[in-house]
Design goal:
Shape: globular
CATH topology: Chalcone isomerase
Low-confidence stretches: 4-19
Number of helices: 6
Helix content: 25-40%
Number of strands: 9
CATH class: Alpha Beta
Length: 191
């Protein structure tokens, strides 16, 4: 019996370490990522759907990673992080369409405002190029720096907690980009 317990513990840890990726819309969403040497676990993932001329179009699969499970907007806003968001695009998007979409999201959904926000959003939007189908944009929030990646390549950084709070308010504020994606990010569901 004494030898069985360590063996069972080892097998349980092996199973946890090798959790399969979540499949959404043909996109593999890993169960964990690493930011600044720290392992972050998938807090939740979902699909962003936009309506163009009354036709719903699945735009991207979003994934939100955290150091510990966070199940409310207050918990996210109070947490020091680090965090990572991955957005895997299901449609190709031009650079100008992508920049306009990010700017519109900040205009419509950022409930945290500060004087430099417009300049920071323009800088953020300019980091991205055209997005191919299944291209990935990632945003890492660590310390007081926000790092922006496209397909794994660092495109730039934005300093300051204010931009981080504004970015988080897109998803977890009172007027989120989409309520179903907010719910999916917080509840671990694929909403």
């Amino acid at each position: 019996m004494k030898k069985t317990i360590p063996l069972l513990a080892f097998l349980a840890l092996t199973q946890i370490a090798s959790l399969p990726a979540l499949q959404m819309e043909g996109v593999n969403v890993p169960p964990q990522v690493t930011v600044d040497g720290k392992t972050l676990k998938l807090n939740g993932a979902g699909v962003r759907t936009v309506v163009l001329l009354v036709v719903p179009i699945k735009a991207y699969v979003g994934a939100f990673y955290t150091p510990t499970p966070l199940r409310s907007e207050a918990a996210v806003m109070a947490s020091p992080g680090p965090f990572r968001f991955d957005f895997t695009f299901l449609q190709a998007v031009s650079q100008s369409q992508g920049a306009q979409a990010w700017q519109a999201q900040f205009k419509d959904s950022a409930t945290f405002q500060y004087q430099q926000l417009t300049v920071d959003v323009a800088t953020f939007s300019a980091f991205f190029g055209p997005i191919r189908q299944l291209g990935v944009q990632s945003v890492e929030i660590s310390g007081d720096v926000t790092r922006v990646f496209e397909n794994g390549t660092l495109k730039g950084t934005i300093p300051g907690r204010n931009f981080q709070k504004a970015f988080l308010s897109l998803w977890f504020g009172s007027n989120p980009v989409t309520p179903s994606l907010k719910s999916a990010f917080l509840n671990g569901q694929s909403g």
